[in-house]
Request: fold
Amino acid sequence: IFYQKLNFSDYVGQSARLKRYIELHHTGIWYIFIANCDTEMDIDLKITGPIEWKNPYGYLPGQILGFLPMYWIMAIIYGGILVIWIVAVFRNHKDMMDLQHGIAVVILISLVENLLWACDYSSYNSNGHISDVTNVFGSLFSSAKLTLVRTLLLVVAVGYTITRPTMTQGYIVGIGILTILYFIGEASNQYISVSETAGVPVPSNLELFAFGFLAIVNAAFFGWIAFELYMTISKLKSEGEKHAMYLRLSILLVLSIATSLIIVMIQMFISLTDSADIHFRAWWLWESYWEFIYLLCISFVAWVWRPTENNSRYAYMELSADEEMKHPEGPDNAVLDAEPETTSIDRKQRRQEQAQQSDQKGGEVSGGKKWKGKGEGLVDGEEEIDLDSHSSGEG
Reply:
């Protein structure tokens, strides 16, 4: 404990300036108390001015020192993911899906956000000053990333491009409203956090309302994601690869939520046992563990939907009526030539071909003869039928 005794009778005038430098040799949480111990003095004392703390490594408090390397490491990882994604897009840009463009936007925003916070913490650690501009932009990009990650997971859970080729109007409106509400709630909480860091008082009622609003919207997001994941997995039971992919995604989300609950329980235990000061080095983890979870989710989605030579490998598949027919096998029953499955990209062309086939077959009579697919003519060895001489036959 260090203390400084002041005798106000030594000062002349209405104000006094106190400037002291104390070197601390013990690592831990330090508190400063200012008290007037002379109860007989009838003086209203007003103290103003900054209190500056500096560690051997810089001005960052020990509780948040972990954020500095974390944001730089995150920025490097997201930068590497973005470079790999750009190279993959350059090599396989044909038939890119909207979902892949959305993934690229999320990766880019995550990179910018981590770079902003890394620069902000580095500047604070060097000169002890907080940049309001960097804080504002960092908060906006953080809000955008947290919002878009949830929106991306919801779009994936819905099965867009997997079990449904397009999003219905109801889904578009619902996802859009939820996205806007979450961004407003997250941006409000970020603003409150930045204001408190800058020393600007925030009404407790406003802080409580912003936190409650964000919690409700967040619960709606996760509830909807869980429901859509369950429905999509049920639809894909017969699709081996796609079903396994969504199962892995659901396991990742369950493990993420379980990890979050475990960390919250540890945090509550530390708070209840009044040992927060002892474990001050782990304080930054209470706010940063979600960053690692977001990184895992983004990396998983980016890997699964990465651009390849076959960008439609997970696309919605639609079978035509001819392809759904079951043909008997055997030497006396020739099977029509099968055509490959069509994706949502070339469905229009497939329908046009079927319409042309129907027009060709409208003026022909098979008479029990076997025909090849796509109007290629009679099977070899069969007799051509004269329409005029069989006008009374079977149509």
